[in-house]
Amino acid sequence: MPDQIIYKIVARDLWVEAERTGSLIGAPVDLADGYIHFSTASQVRETARRHFSGQSDLLLVSVNVDRLGDKLKWEPSRGGDLFPHLYGPLYTAWVTDVVELPLGPDGHEFAGKIG
User: Fold this and answer.
1) In this predicted structure, what is the pLDDT of residue 51?
2) Half-sphere exposure of 82 (CA within 13 A, CB side)
3) How far apart, in Å, are the Cα atoms of 27 and each of 4, 18, 82, 89, 112?
4) Strand pairing class (36-37; 58-64)
5) pLDDT score for 1
6) pLDDT of amino acid 32
7) For the segment 76-107, what is each residue's pLDDT rounded down to a tens digit?
8) Distance in angstroms (rounded) separating the CA atoms of residues 73 and 107
9) Which residues pair with 75 in a beta bridge?
10) Which residues of 32-66 are buried (b: 16+ CB within 10 A; e: fewer)?
11) C-alpha–C-alpha distance, residues 89 and 30, integer Å
12) Alpha-carbon span 85 to 107, nearest angstrom
């Protein structure tokens, strides 16, 4: 298993709804693909750059992989790297941290440290 903590970049409005209901079923891309996309610490900056550039009001949700059980699959994606994919809802009780995710001045890479 590559990392113990994995990350989900999520729009604040989706996360507010997840907190209200107790679970996140995913963003539109997650729903279309049939699983919730996560990134490891080494992957999350590139994920932010590729998929969230120019967006604001984002949050970074952290989850310990031990909480996810067999619904978490490590599957090849970008460049053959193994990415964590959750086949099922993400229950808010499983989340270890939620922090603001401000984008850097270039609008591509977010500020702050991961891991």
Assistant:
1) 87
2) 8
3) 23, 11, 20, 11, 23
4) unpaired
5) 45
6) 97
7) 987 888 999 999 999 999 999 999 988 665 55
8) 31
9) 83
10) eeebbbbbbbebbbebbbeebeeeeebbbbbbebe
11) 10
12) 26
Angstrom distance (rounded) from CA 77 to CA 79 = 6
Domains in the chain, please, with CATH?
Answer: 5-100 (3.20.170.20)
Name the pLDDT band for 35 (thresholds 50, 70, 90): very high
Q: Which amino acid belongs to residue 12? A: R
Please say whether the beta carbons of 80 and 73 come within 8 A: no
Q: Are 74 and 1 in contact (CB under 8 A)?
A: yes
Structure tokens of 77? 């994606």
Parallel/antiparallel/unpaired status of strands 82-86 and 36-37 = antiparallel
Angstrom distance (rounded) from CA 77 to CA 13: 27
- Spatial contact of 24 and 92, defined as CB atoms under 8 Å apart: yes
| Percent share of the chain, pLDDT over 70 | 86
Cβ atoms of 89 and 23 closer than 8 Å: yes
